[in-house]
Amino acid sequence: MPRRSLLCLLVLSGCGDSSSGAAETTGALTTVPTSPTAPTSSTTDSPDPRTTTDDPDPNTTDLTTSPTTLTTTGDPAPCTPATCSDHGTCAATPDGLPCVCDDGFTGDHCEAEDPDPEGPLSTEPRLLLEEDSFYPRVIELDDGTILAAVVAPQQSGRLGGTILESTNGGVDFTVVGHIDGDLSLGGLCCATLYQLPQPLGALPAGSLLWAASVGADDPNAPMAIPAFASTDRGRTWSFLSNVVVAGVPRAQGGLWEPEFSQLGDGSLVCHYSDETDPAHSQKLVARRSLDGLGWPEQRDIVRLPAEPARPGMPVVRRPPTGPYRMSFEICGTDGCATHLRFSDDGWNWGDPADPGLRPATLTGLHFRHAPTLAFSDAPGNGRFFLVGQLLFSGDSQAGPSGTVLLANTEGGYGAWYELPAPVPVPDAYDNFCPNYSAPILPLEHGRVVLELASRWDGDRCRTYYARGPLRGTGDASGLTDGAAYRFTALNSNFCLDVVDGSPNPGANIRQWDCNGSDAQRFTFSVQPNGDAHLINIASGLCVTAATNSPDAGANVEQQPCDAATTWRLENVGLGYWRAVHSDTGVCLDVAGGSPDLGANVQQWTCNDLAPQIWRLTP
User: Fold this and answer.
1) H or E element at residue 161
2) DSSP strand pairing (448-457 vs 224-230)
3) Deepest in the core among 59, 258, 406, 572, taking most CB within 10 A?
4) For residues 46 and 461, what is the distance between their CA atoms, to the nearest angstrom?
5) Are 102 and 445 in contact (CB under 8 A)?
6) Which domain holds residue 165?
7) Residue 346 above 70 pLDDT?
């Protein structure tokens, strides 16, 4: 997103009226704790920010996910790993090997959704605050409490932080605290919210941090990124330190979009966007602190060779195992497209000139402007999720722009696939408000996601929130009995194919270049048991496990339909399904997860990975 100069966008009298710089932001902060039952503050009208020619970039914050919790449900029927659905695992007990179900699922094989899960699967979008608000952030605390933060008008008449709490999984929110005072005299934007997983200096584990970019309205003073801390779950806040103060006045560059992450050694890192290097329009920089007070270490993280390149808006996530991931946009030279980088330790990210991966779907859909990143530890090995302001195909905005999330089962590598966004903003455009830097928070072991997104209500920018499913509908909804479909493997972008278009029983099934032939089209034919045969158009024969075997690893071929496997088609995203053997719960699978042309297709234990996810198109 091209950088804008006006940060005091939604207020207000008194905003940006100080000539003092941001270099010495100190404890002259007014904390305004609010009881959990207190109403939100009164509405403050503001001029339409769209009338300005400039608007700032925001930031995202760390989203922590709830720990994995496994609950035994149903009778402890003996099982093997192959007979538990992907929503459960076998566990040895004195009674045998029961299926231990993930949160939100029940049944002997964990095959059914719990009729009384932790919260509703989806909710309608609701207004977070009556007053104007933007740059929302959301995190989950260790006890399941959810905290949200927005940049919003405060009692001082200036912008600051409003903190809200939900104790019912994001169904309702209540204002619990404010960050207000003279920190925003020179303008404020791009705030972030983070919970410390470990102690930091005098701060105990569980303390909250909030930081923002300040000082952009005064061209003659330097910008700064002050950090504040709370040890009472966001009720009151105190100044902690300045992460960084620019070495030049605002007119020569700004500091934007702070993003915290605490590393394995306990040190705290703040990533941010830096415009103050005259050799680069913008670059991503990191600073590190051992106590939250001093920030002696600094390094460039993304510094691209082309001077006009503007990497910005970093968001850092780390799963329980494996490397840190950072999403960011590259404006100036790549249309503000989303990119992804990796780091083993969260401090060393490799060559700063490396732009990283450019996440996209099988069809090339990708986000542009203001991306955020989230991780869920389930299903399977966990999934990463992205959301951005606008969805593009090539260089054109795509039809579902503002209404989808993207998901990835392979640690951020390979193809992504679409899911519906809980808070759709279909009229989003390149502007600081609509769907701009919208955070997403997976909940309940990856069953649902909570999204916060801002949008225009007339001339007011306000934030909405809603819950929505992260695992698709789980059934064959959207498929038509008797219709023919092409199956494209998510892991390879090759099509399910009868070898050489053979009409013969026993002909093998593989993945092959998608060519539009009838050898790659299969009729979805619902059977009396409610599941379906997959009938090849060219041969009239059915896709089946060899000898209709129940075993993981059995080959898949075509045979007469009277003794063929029936498959349960389970939706996992917008246009994406997996095919599950009706009798044993194993999945149609590209053998070995191969990306190669001609790789064999088999059935394998369902694992929620890309080789078992298929894009179905008529």
Assistant:
1) strand 159-166
2) unpaired
3) 59
4) 9
5) yes
6) 29-65+120-469
7) yes
